[in-house]
Amino acid sequence: MPRIRMLTSVAGAGFSWRAGDEIDLPGPEATAWADGVRAELVRAEPVETPEQPPAAETAARRPARRRAAPRGTS
C-alpha cells in the first residue's frame, strides 16, 4: 500500500490529517493526493514482511543443585 506525506493540513468527514503526517492509502487514492501540493509520495512499493515471526526468547535453565552426602557415613 503506498504511503504519502501530507504537505498541507486537510480535514473532512471522518478524517483529519496535519502537515507532516504519513498515511497509507490504496494506490489510486494515494496517486490522487500526491500531487506535490497537498501531499507527496513517500513509498510506492509494498512493505516486505518476514515469512516467519521471530523466535521467542527463552531463559536458560540453571543446573540442579547437588545435595551434600549425609553425615556419619563413611
What does this structure look like?
The protein is mainly beta. The protein contains 1 helix and 5 strands. The strands form 2 sheets. A 3-stranded antiparallel β-sheet has the order 4-1-5, covered by helices on one side. Strands 2-3 form a two-stranded antiparallel ribbon. A hairpin with a 2-residue loop joins strand 2 and strand 3. The radius of gyration is 29 Å and the shape is rod-shaped. The model has no long low-confidence stretch (mean pLDDT 83).
Q: Identify the overall geometry.
A: rod-shaped
Mean of all residue-level pLDDT scores: 83
Q: What structural class is derived from the secondary structure elements?
A: mainly beta
Helical amount among residues, as a percent range? under 10%
Order of helices and strands: EEEEHE
> How many alpha or pi helices?
1
